[in-house]
């Protein structure tokens, strides 16, 4: 073998070794990290069960009266021990009541039962329907009875009235609304607007 060919073979061998070392040092570690973080399951240490996470859910249901309920969420967690209940994050819901106005509900978190459609909205809950806005921290909504119970820092804003109360109950079918304080010695604060 002549000197020139021997030098070329040695240089190719050195380049292969350096490339292999570079690949093993910088690229295989990143692939291992990706494999470890790509699993989207959480183990609940107290219950020793797993949860499944679903991104971008959208559920639509209709009752016998023709009312429609649509709920969307950025992410849902479903626990293995009760797959009918979903824990939601960044929730938006619409209630389309037949022959009536549409109600929009938003909240940071929610708990949705896919069997009976009951939904609990929590943290920064906002309910909007034409001419009305209710904000608070907790809304328990039953789709079957069309009853919404708003509690914790409830503030209502209407076209001519603002009020602050501990609890508001509203029947979406009849529009009957009950507003009250938990402590009967306290009064609901009502303020008129122009």
Principal-axes shape call: elongated
Could you tell me the radius of gyration in angstroms? 29 Å
For this structure, what is the CATH homologous superfamily of the largest domain? Lipopolysaccharide (LPS) transport protein A like domain
Poorly predicted sequence stretches spanning 5 or more consecutive residues: 29-48
Q: How many helices in DSSP terms?
A: 1
How far is it from the N-terminal to the C-terminal residue, by CA? 101 Å
Global structural class:
alpha+beta
Largest sheet: 11 strands, antiparallel
Strand content: over 45%
pLDDT averaged residue by residue: 79
Q: Say what the CATH topology of the largest domain is.
A: lipopolysaccharide transport protein A fold
Q: What sequence of helices (H) and strands (E) makes up the elements? A: HEEEEEEEEEEE
What's the β-strand tally?
11
Please indicate the count of domains.
2
CATH class of the largest domain: Mainly Beta
CATH architectural label of the largest domain = Sandwich
Q: Roughly what percent helix?
A: 10-25%
Polypeptide structure, described:
With 194 residues, this protein is α+β, with helices and mostly antiparallel strands. The protein has 2 domains: 39 residues; 145 residues, Lipopolysaccharide (LPS) transport protein A like domain (lipopolysaccharide transport protein A fold, Sandwich), CATH 2.60.450. 18% of the residues lie in helices and 57% in strands. It is built from 1 helix and 11 strands; from the N terminus they run αβββββββββββ. It is elongated, with a radius of gyration of 29 Å. About 10% of the residues have low confidence.
């Amino acid at each position: 073998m002549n000197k020139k060919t021997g030098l070329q073979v040695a240089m190719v061998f050195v380049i292969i070794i350096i490339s292999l070392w570079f690949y093993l040092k910088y690229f295989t570690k990143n692939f291992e990290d990706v494999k470890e973080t790509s699993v989207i399951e959480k183990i609940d240490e107290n219950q020793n069960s797993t949860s499944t996470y679903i991104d971008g859910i959208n559920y639509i249901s209709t009752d016998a009266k023709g009312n429609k309920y649509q709920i969307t969420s950025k992410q849902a967690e479903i626990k293995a021990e009760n797959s009918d209940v979903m824990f939601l994050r960044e929730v938006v819901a619409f209630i389309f009541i037949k022959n009536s106005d549409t109600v929009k509900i938003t909240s940071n978190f929610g708990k949705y039962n896919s069997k009976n459609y009951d939904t609990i909205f929590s943290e920064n809950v906002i309910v909007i329907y034409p001419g009305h806005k209710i904000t608070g921290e907790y809304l328990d909504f039953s789709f079957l009875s069309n009853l919404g119970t708003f509690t914790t820092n409830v503030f209502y804003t209407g076209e001519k009235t603002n009020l602050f109360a501990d609890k508001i109950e509203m029947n979406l079918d009849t529009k009957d609304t009950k507003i009250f304080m938990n402590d009967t010695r306290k009064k609901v604060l009502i303020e008129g607007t122009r």
